[in-house]
């Protein structure tokens, strides 16, 4: 991923990073979630600008142009709230574009204070349609509909009575995918190597015993919707797997592991390799290079309603309910929830372990885990 890194001198450090981020995003007319500020000891601030779509091959950010825009605002006097009259902004290291090495980017992400990981995010609807601010703390809060102690599935059935029965997505054998037009959701059967699954390499207890100390990226239904990798919170895999046992067993929006496979230990990557190679190819003549993400979640909501490039999800453990619809179907719709769980989603399915779900380009989708689940997401690199 290509980032732009800027240096802002004489920043008003007393404001804190989240306030400076909001001012920078407003100055550049970009989303708050695409800006990270880090305060330095010399009263300067390092500003990192992210691509518009972290799941897409976005064009490189023109750091020189971004710096020029900020300097123009400083000179006009409109930046007095967050910079001094003698502040200047320039690309880091005098380069027009800076591409951070993956290891450095990971270190920057890991060192973000927890309280600042989601301060820049806008309100979004919770499952009941109530507007809330995403927070890593929200994983310990039950939704309004679940005011009594009930399981996540029982609560979701109040919004979607057909939670465990309705499924209108076509299924096709992996040998017949050449017949697909790839313009609507489809479940692909027999793509996952049965011999690999039978080895129980993804058994929950085994993962905890062998890789419990590994740091993974985590979030919840709300924090992972927009720029999820960046907003995610580091946590040991052991703590993430045990999070549902720490007094939040009835929450519908619990902790989700959402970690790029390439960040995992080499031994685990080797074990996952046959599965990543088993993903069906939409076009054998022009195969797409993909990046893979390991996802683990307990019963309850997965990532909230969002969209991105065409993707596949290989479910290896558990069952998931998917809600999907084309972007055009929601044009002009303001109140999406809880209606998205019924009439506002055109396609719904119950994905079983061993199946691969294809979600078309730019389709909105949301996931509900009917039980503990583990799988791998594949997106274009």
Automatic annotation (TrEMBL):
InterPro entries: JmjC_dom (IPR003347), JMJD6_ArgDemeth/LysHydrox (IPR050910). Residues 248-381 form the JmjC domain. PANTHER family: ARGININE DEMETHYLASE AND LYSYL-HYDROXYLASE JMJD. This is JmjC domain-containing protein. It comes from Skeletonema marinoi.
């Amino acid at each position: 991923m290509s980032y732009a890194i800027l240096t802002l001198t004489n920043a008003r450090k007393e404001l804190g990073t989240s306030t400076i981020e909001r001012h920078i995003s407003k100055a550049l007319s970009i989303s708050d979630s695409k800006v990270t500020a880090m305060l330095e000891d010399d009263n300067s601030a390092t500003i990192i600008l992210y691509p518009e779509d972290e799941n897409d091959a976005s064009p490189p950010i023109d750091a020189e142009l971004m710096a020029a825009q900020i300097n123009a605002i400083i000179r006009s006097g409109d930046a007095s709230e967050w910079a001094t009259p003698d502040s200047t902004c320039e690309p880091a290291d005098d380069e027009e574009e800076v591409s951070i090495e993956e290891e450095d980017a990971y270190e920057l992400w890991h060192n973000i204070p927890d309280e600042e990981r989601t301060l820049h995010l806008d309100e979004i609807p919770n499952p009941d349609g109530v507007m809330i601010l995403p927070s890593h703390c929200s994983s310990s809060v039950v939704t309004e509909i679940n005011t009594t102690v009930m399981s996540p599935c029982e609560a979701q059935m109040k919004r979607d009575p057909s939670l465990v029965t309705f499924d209108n997505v076509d299924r096709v054998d992996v040998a017949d995918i050449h017949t697909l037009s790839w313009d609507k959701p489809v479940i692909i059967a027999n793509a996952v190597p049965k011999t690999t699954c039978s080895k129980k390499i993804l058994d929950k207890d085994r993962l905890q015993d062998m890789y419990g100390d590994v740091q993974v990226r985590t979030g919840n239904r709300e924090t992972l919707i927009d720029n999820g990798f960046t907003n995610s919170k580091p946590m040991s895999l052991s703590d993430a797997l045990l999070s549902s046992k720490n007094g939040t067993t009835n929450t519908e929006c619990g902790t989700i592991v959402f970690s790029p496979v390439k960040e995992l230990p080499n031994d685990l990557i080797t074990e996952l390799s046959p599965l990543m190679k088993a993903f069906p190819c939409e076009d054998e003549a022009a195969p797409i290079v993909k990046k893979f993400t390991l996802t683990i979640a307990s019963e309850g909501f997965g990532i909230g309603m969002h969209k991105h490039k065409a993707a596949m999800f290989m479910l290896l453990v558990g069952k998931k309910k998917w809600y999907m619809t084309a972007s055009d179907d929601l044009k002009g719709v303001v109140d999406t929830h809880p209606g998205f769980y019924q009439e506002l989603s055109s396609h719904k399915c119950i994905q079983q372990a061993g199946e691969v779900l294809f979600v078309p380009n730019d389709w909105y989708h949301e996931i509900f885990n009917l039980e503990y689940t583990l799988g791998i997401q594949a997106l274009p690199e």
